[in-house]
Amino acid sequence: SFPADAVPQAPEDPLFGLMAAYRADDFDKKVDLGIGAYRDDNAKPWVLPVVKKADEILRSDPALNHEYLPIAGLATFTAAAAKLILGADSPALTEKRTSSTQTISGTGALHLGALFLSKFFPGHPTVYFSNPTWANHHQIFSNVSMPIASYPYFSKSTKGLDFEGMKQAIADAPERSIIVLHACAHNPTGVDPTQSQWKELAVLLREKSHFPFFDCAYQGFASGDLAKDAWAVRYFVEQGFEMCIAQSFAKNFGLYGERAGCFHFVTGPGADAQSTIGRIASQLTILQRSEISNPPAYGARIAGLVMNDEALFKEWEQNLKTMAGRIIDMRKSLRSKLEEMGTPGTWNHITDQIGMFSFTGLTEKQVLKLREVSHVYMTKNGRISMAGLNTHNIDYFAKAVDKVVR
Ligand code: PMP
Predict the structure, then answer these.
(1) Which helix (H) or strand (E) holds 285?
(2) Ligand 1 center–CA 287 separation, angstroms
(3) 123: how many CB neighbours lie within 10 A of its CB?
(4) In the chain, which end has fewer C-beta atoms inside a 10 angstrom radius, N or C?
(5) Known catalytic membership, residue 316
(6) In the UniProt record, does the keyword tRNA processing occur (predicted)?
């Protein structure tokens, strides 16, 4: 029989463990900079006004029911999702060589992509992640028995991109490796390649016939501009790459728990592209059927409604600007407070970095001391969720940092 008593204890998820510790702390000035979820200036979750509106429209529809979605998801949602990331006039869409499958948010998209590649990508390739990366990447690809490795990404000295190290590792990887790239607002570092660096990366990937897998969890959330945040993906499509894209609507719609996401496979241009994508789509359907049968409806209905309605779409863009703008303000404010106090070290990286997170450069020892002395909660690698800062706690946080680095 199955020796159930031999199952070892698994470690607690570090992030969700941190959240529990924060909740258990009853200090009134405690600060939560752990989880990557947007908070308003009062440290409260924010339901986007456009999401509220879409929700009311959906609920007032007498024809709304709870039937299953098709296996590949809500077609109006997946088509709009593809347009959003690729651009409406993308050759990958006009040439009908994209297959889009609705998934359980970004995580589900990564999983479906990983599962598909593990079955159909010839030669048992290694999957390369940035070091560091979103920790779940390792688990998702290991779970489908793909070998994993990493490329340098973050430079401890500049607190920016280690571009030379990154290029070297990608050049040294065996031909036809899978390279996972964060489309924008890299998690956990907040450091993105510049457009000219992306262009160099494209040349390098092409030379080695590597396969890009874009993880896009923050489109519109990083800069406040949907097209700008999709630039790298669109550039690689323009260059004729075949690729996977995992797309999350958790952050940019604030639909975290509704699990709205999409997986896109884009084939390269060519006469056979349409028949190739048809076969790929058929396999994705089989995989999806055995994994989740069909995806959850509600978040996709909300996001789909907004993306397909011109007025709602415009309102969404405003909501994105509100979120991205508040975070950019917090970056400026934190940097200037630290610089005003003469806090040891350089702090330009706080405003150079982009998106939800900042890699502060604080050491694990300092992070633990901040938690103990000042009740400030962040991950041990020194990452802070910028959304956890607001006009009420930023002064307290800056002073706590100043104290701990002196
Ligand atoms: N990739 C990255 C880099 C992320 O930061 C996240 C969210 N933390 C995801 C994927 C997926 O998140 P979700 O499944 O909630 O869409």
Answers:
(1) helix 273-291
(2) 21
(3) 9
(4) N
(5) no
(6) no
pLDDT digits (tens, 9 = 90+) for 331-375: 999 999 999 999 999 999 999 999 999 999 999 999 999 999 999
Number of C-alpha atoms within 13 angstroms, CB side, residue 52?
5
Q: How far apart are CA 190 and CA 213, in angstroms?
A: 19
Q: Which residue in this structure is represented by tokens 């002073």?
A: 399
Given the residues 32, 192, 215, 229, select the one marked as catalytic.
215
Active site annotation includes 134: yes
354-385 per-residue burial string, b: 16 or more CB within 10 A, e: under 16: bbbbbbbbbeeebbebbbeebbbbbbebbbbb
How many A from CA of 283 to the centre of ligand 1? 24
Residue nearest to atom 6 of ligand 1 (CA): 217
ipTM over 0.85: yes
Is residue 91 classed as helix, strand or coil in its secondary structure? helix
CB 351 within 8 A of CB 332: yes
Residues with CB under 6 A from ligand 1: 36, 105-107, 134, 182, 187, 215, 217, 248, 250, 261
